[in-house]
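TL;DR need C-alpha cells for one chain.
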Amino acid sequence: MADMELDGDSPELVAYRLSQDVRELEWRYPESGTPYNRKEYLDLFSECLEAVKGNRKVKV
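>> reply
TL;DR here they are.
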C-alpha cells in the first residue's frame, strides 16, 4: 500500500491506524513466521473498528 497522509479521527480511520500498528508489531515479532493473509487482515480491521466504537467483546 502506498504511503499517504490521512487526516481525521473517524472510527474507520482510527481502526485503520490501529490495525497498521498491530500488524507492524506482529510482523516484527512473528510467532508463526508467516505474514498476514487478506482474510486475517480484514478480520484485524473489523476487530479494530469494533474496538474504537466500544463494541469489542473481550475474551476472558
